[in-house]
Write a structure and sequence with these properties.
The complex is a heterotrimer. By secondary structure, chain A is mainly α. Chain A has 12 helices and no strands. In chain A, helix 1 crosses helix 6, helix 7 crosses helix 8 and helix 7 runs parallel beside helix 12. Chain B is mainly alpha-helical. Chain B has one domain. The longest helix of chain B has 31 residues. Chain C has 2 domains: 220 residues, P-loop containing nucleotide triphosphate hydrolases (Rossmann fold); 80 residues, Alpha-Beta Plaits. In chain C, helix 2 packs across helix 3. Classes of the chains: A mainly alpha, B mainly alpha, C alpha/beta. Chains in contact: A-B, A-C, B-C. Chains A and C meet through helix 1 and helix 5 of A and strand 6, helix 2 and helix 4 of C.
Chain lengths: 254, 68, 305
Amino acid sequence: MKGYFAFLKKEFFEYTKTYKLFIMLMIFIIFGITNPLIAKLMPEIVGSLVTDGVVITLPEPTAYDAWAQFFKNATQMGLFVMVILFSGVLSSELSKGTLINLLTKGLSRTAVILSKYTCMVSVWTISISLCFGLTYGYTAYLFPQGETSNLLFSVFCLWLFGLFLLAALLFSATLTRSSYGGLLITGAVVVVCMVMNIIPDVHRYNPISLATDNMGLIMNSTEVSSLYSTIMISCLLSLIFVFLSVVIFRKKQL
Amino acid sequence: MDSAMLKEYLPFLIPLVIAQYALAITALVHVLRHPRYRFGNKVMWVLIVLFIQFIGPALYFAFGRGEE
Amino acid sequence: MGVLEIRQLYKSFGHHEVLKGLDMDVPEHSIFGFVGQNGAGKTTTMKIILGLLKPDSGSVTVCGEKVTYGESKANRHIGFLPDVPEFYGYMNPMEYLKLCGEIAGLSKTQIKSRSEELLELVGLKDQKKRISGFSRGMKQRLGIAQALLNEPKLLICDEPTSALDPIGRKEILDILLAAKGKTTIVFSTHILSDVERICDRIAVLHDGKLALCGTLSEIKERHRLHGFILEFENEEAASCFENTEELKQPSISLSRDGSTVKVFMKDGGMDGHFLLGVLSQKRIVPLKFAVMEPTLESLFMEVVR
């Protein structure tokens, strides 16, 4: 337990000192601000592009457009940036051998894996909350009469998908020695999820629904209850990934 | 954009510009002050950091920065 | 009871057998030189002791506690200095030792006093710089400080001096000597002069087993060559001595190089008195008459060949 907290502190210190935390926060802050802004400006941008007499009439933007931007940016760009930033979570320590000293001091390998996961989850949670807060505030400012449903639940789903992705990343990192290998396996996991989504029956249980059904939830076209099984599965898979990471890492020759 | 609109969007633009520049400049300073990279060279990283928004600095800190 | 006991250790990588039944005992409060060629299996042995590698068979006991692979409880008795210690480059020495201390479960005040004491010992006391700017030697010294932090009963150093310049080497050896009273030190090396400088016991690892083991004086005694070097005034006197009838025996071999003659005697039956007798009988007075001491290098070459 002592090792867990000491190592967790070191992880936060590391993300601060290597600018990774800063980058994460900045990017999510920028997203938070741009989401409603792009939604608001979209008709103007499209209008200025069309010059040769073709008239495209776009409907007046609403709060939905702002949230559409939020879920698009956060899922595509945000998760992408996060996975890239965290891709060296284990490989950088393994290739340099920085863990050896600490492990021979009696730090348990379980504590290494768990504190690394805790730290990544915390950074993701802070980032997504910041992004959400900013988008929420600015959307209220730009679209005062916007009404959305299930907003918090929808963001919760996205957050949970982040947890699932990080667990997959951690698991991949224990399997390989290079950060690229970890990225590749994580990418493969996502691709598999996406391909599986083609089968309609799988959609209900596929973790990726957590990141694709968000707009449906907000517009009330998707039932909240339809995601319950997905949530269960995602939690279970995340737990399995973390558990396997611990098991594999404990048996790894360093 | 006319000045009225600019005024309306100022609460957005100011923090946005600050955040973007902070990101780019932090990365740029680091690129220039630590001229050893895992791959690529200084010119390449300066261009990436300055011209690929958001992702550029992230790529640099995740992959580009060498051992100090 | 030994601090470290290794019994019948086997380890192979693929088809390459590195350790073939290694037995080793390290008694308390010794500085134990673990010598071997590059690739002899020194690092492998150490990693097994630390539970970082899994042996094919055999057992390792540290302070009476059995080493298990993966999460080794025995590690709390051990301080380890890897051959090239790696640290988190963004920390300074104090921050790093604090992290180590917290992991080892020391209290805040303990960490502070131990860190200061150790940084003083290794000469990094007022170093506020980040570790990323450290030289090889400074990293090695910080490595010793972190290894000694939890007052280990056994300090294991993997080639602590190999990568250093002569000054850095001397510093490390001095630090190890200073730590001798408090802990048992096992250090691997292929630099024999380092071993002679500080070790009281040595073991030579060759072909997966210990080829030599014991205290330095014991080993030298055991491998005494019964050889003598005689230096004469001129070549004439030397050849006169060389051709003496009494020396023409199967158990004696002679070799002459200019005015110097080397005499080797095969069994312990004859000794220096015999040669002195021959000299006085022939009425030759040598310039120099010396017993050949086995050097560690010659011993090493002998067992490794």
